[in-house]
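>> Question from a student workshop board

For tomorrow's exercise we were told to take the sequence and the ligand below, predict the bound structure, and bring the output to class. My setup keeps failing. Could a helper post the expected result so I can at least see what it should look like? The ligand is cobalamin.
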Amino acid sequence: MWLLLALLQAAVLPARPCEAPAEAAVAVRALSARLLGLAMEPGQDADPGIYVGLRLGSEHDLSMEHSYLQRLQDAFQSRYGRSLHAASRQSHGHRHRNTDSMPETGRLALYLLGLRASCPPPDPTTQRFPVTWLKYYLEKDWAGSRHHGHPLTSYYQYSLGVLALCVHRKRVREEVIQRLLVAEQHRRFGHVDGNAVDTEAVAALAFACLKKEQHIRAGLAAELRTAVHRTRARLVEAQSADGLIGNAFSTPLAMQVFIATNTCKTQPAYGRAMAALLHHLDSFTSAATMAQALLALNGRSYLSIASMQCQKELDTLTPIFLEPMPLGPHNMTVRLVVECPVPGCPQQLLYDSLVSAPAGASLLDLLRAAPPQGSKNFTFETQDTAYGPFLTSVQGMAARPKERHYWQLLSGLGTSLQMGVADYRPKDGNTVILRLSKW
Ligand code: B12
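>> Workshop helper replied:
Here is what the output should look like for this input. Compare the format with yours to find the bug.
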C-alpha cells in the first residue's frame, strides 16, 4: 500500500533534487508516520520543532497538523501574543516572567518558522508580537554574549533566532550578525563533547539566508559568503569514513547546509551523508531528532520555509504508534556511578552501586531501579522535552542551567553518550557515569 502511494506520489510530483533516493521512500514514509504518532501522543506539550518537521514533509495529516498548530498557538500566543511593554508592566508587584527569565530564543524561533510554514498562512497580526519578542530575546542573548563571551542560551539558539527573523524578512542588527560571524571565525561553537557540527550547521543556514537579503551591505554579504563556504568545507572535512558528519544526529543538520546552498548534487559528501543517514534511521527515536532527520530526507532546509507556497498537499499520512521495546527475560547488571566534581558538591562521588534490571532496559529504567546506598535512596528528576526526558537533578543536586551546568551521561570509558536517558540502553556489565559538568 505504502509502496503504491510512494510510487504514485513520485509520478505526480516532481522529485526534489536533494531528497532521499526513491528506493528509500518507504523508510522515509515510515519515519514520518512515527513522528506523526509521537505528535499525537496524549500528555505531551506541542513542540514547534516537531511541527516544522511535519509541515516540511511530503505527505501530511492535515487535520492533525491543524489541531497541532492550534495547540502551539494557544501555548505561544498566551506568552508572546502581547507587546513587551504590556508584559513588563508591573502587575501585582511582580514583573512578567517572560521579561525576567532566561530567553526562549530557540523555541520562539522554531515557532515563527512553524507559523511561516503553515497553510493557509495565519493572520499576519498573530506574528507581530512574537517577532518583537524574538528580537528582544536575541538582543538579550547578544548583550549576554558581550558580558559572558557566549549568548545566555547557546549559539545554536542564537543562530535559530537570526535564521527565523531572516526567513520572516525582518531586519537583524549588524552587530548581532557580527557576533555570530566572529564566533564562526574563532571556532567558538564547540559543544562540551567537541561536536560542534549541529551549531555550525544552523549558523551557516542563518548566514546563507542573510546573504540573500537586499538590505545587507556588500562588505557584510561578502563576509557571510566566506563564512558559508568555510563552514561547508569544514563539514566536508568532518565527514568520517562511514559517511556521518559529526554523529548520526548532527548529520541531518549538516545536510541542510548543502540543500540550502544548492550543492547537494555537486558535493559528493551529500550523497554519502544521505546513505549514512538512511543506514542509521533506527537510531532516531525521539520526536525532535526525527523531525530534524525528516527535513534532510525530504530534501528541505529551514530556508525552504521562506519560499513555501500553499499548494495542494497530499493528505495521505497515517500515524504509526510503536509499542515500547520488549524487555529480555534475563536480567543484566550495570554499574551506576554519580560524580560531582564542581565546587559546592558535598563530595566527589555521590553514588556507586550495581543496578539490576531486565536486559534491554533503558538508562531511565535503571535509574528507577537503582537501590538505596546506606540509608539514602537514589533520587533523580527529569524534565520532558521533545528530545525525551532531560536529566535535571541527581541525588538532590540540581544542575543550574544559568551557570551552564548539566548532568552529563558518560560510558565507563569516559566517552559522552550520544543519547538521552530514555533512549540509551546499556548492556550487561557496562558502567554508566552521571557527572555534573560544565559546558
Ligand atoms: C545545546 C545542546 C545541549 C546543551 C543544552 C543547554 C542549552 N542551554 O542550550 C547541553 C550541553 C546541556 C546538552 C546536553 C546533552 N545533550 Co545536547 N544538544 C544541544 C544542541 C546542540 C541544541 C539543542 C537546542 O537548543 N535545541 C533547540 C531548542 C529550541 O529546543 P529545546 O527542546 O528547548 O532544547 C532544550 C532541551 O531539549 C535540552 N537538551 C539539549 N540536549 C539534549 C539532549 C537530550 C537527550 C535531551 C532529552 C534534552 C536535551 O536543552 C535544550 C536547550 O534548553 C542539540 C543539537 C540538535 N541537533 O538538536 C544537541 C543534542 C540534542 N544533544 C544531544 C545529547 C546526546 C546530549 C546529552 C545526552 C549528552 C551527554 N552525553 O550528556 C546531554 C543531555 C543529558 C541530560 N542531562 O539529560 C544529542 C541528542 C541525540 C538524541 N539521540 O536524542 C544532540 C542531537 C546532539 C548530537 N548531535 O548528538 N545539549
